[in-house]
Amino acid sequence: MKASFSTLALTAAVASAADFNTTDNDVFAPRVVGGYEAPVGQYTWTVGLRQTQTGRQGCGGSLISPTWVLTAGHCVSGGAPAPKYIAVGTHYLEGNSDGEIIAVKNVVKNPSFSDPLTGNDIALIQLARPSKFTPIKLSKKAVVAGDSVRLLGWGGVGGGSDNVGAQSPVLKQNDFTVLDNSECQSRIQATRDPQLSNWIAGPTHLCAGGIVGQASCKGDSGGPLVRMNADGSSSLVGDVSFGLPCAQGVPDVYGRIAQFAAFIDQTATGHQWDDAAPGPTTAPSRTTPTPPKTPTPPKTPSPPSGICDLYSNACYWPPNGQYYLVPEYDCVVQGGVWCP
Question: Which residue windows does the record flag with biased composition (Pro residues) (predicted)?
Fold first, then answer.
C-alpha cells in the first residue's frame, strides 16, 4: 500500500540531530566568520533562539510574520533543547537592552526532516504574542549561481585551531555568491570528510560562499540568508544548515526557502512572499486587455517502474535515491522524478 509522503519522514541519517548542536562538531551548527557589524536597527527581523530571557542566542532565525519564526530543523530536533524564548530585533548576542523577548508558544518541525545532509532543514516557531517588528518577506524567486546573498548572525571572529573564536557580541553581516549545486557537491566531497564523502546536493539545498576567511561557523544555525533587493528591502532565500571547519574555503549549505513553500503555507499565518501579485491601484480599463500567453510547463515524464511504489505526491531525486516534499514543477525542472 502506498502512503502519502506528507505523513512520512526520511529515514536515512548520516549523523544524529544531537550532533548538530554540540560545540565541538566542525561540520554542523554554523555561525558567521569574517564580515562586519550590521547597521543597528536595519535587520530587526533577525532573531535569536534562547533558553532564558537574557541568555545568549543558540540558533538564529527569521521573523516571517508577527507570530511566526523560521529556523533550521536541526535547531529543534534530536538532542537540541526546544527554545523557550525568541529575541526579536536585538542587535546583541545576549541581554535585553533592545528589541523584545517573546515566549515560545509552539514548535512545528518539518515532517520531511531527518538530518541536514538529506535536506529539508527547516522548522517554524509560533510566538506567544505578536512582535512589534516588521517581518521579512519570503522568496519563491529562483536563486541561481552567481547571485549575491547576505548572511546575518552573531558569528565567531575567527582564530584558534578550528578558526572559530568567540561569538560576536553584536549582529554581523557577510556577503557571498551563490554556487551551482553540482559545483558545491564536488567541492564538499573533495574535502574527504568521512561524513560528506558521498554527500549529494539535493533540491532543498542551497550553497554559497567557499572563500577562505569568510563563512558561516558554529553557533548560528537557522539564521537568515537574504537577497538584497533594488528598493533596499531584503527577501529570505535560505536558512543556515551546515558547513565544514570554519572559513577554510569550502562552500556552506543552506536550506532553500522556495522549496519549503507548501510546508510554510500550511503551517504559518500572516507571512508574505515577495513575488505575490499586488492588488489593483487604479480603476480597470473598459477595454479588456489580451492576457499574456501562459508558458507551457515541462511535461512530467512517467516514473520508472517501482520508483513510486512507496510514496505519492513526492519528488524522487535519482542522485541519492531520496524523496522530497517539493512542488511538481520544481521537481521536474531540476531533473527529479515526480511520483503522482
Answer: 289-303
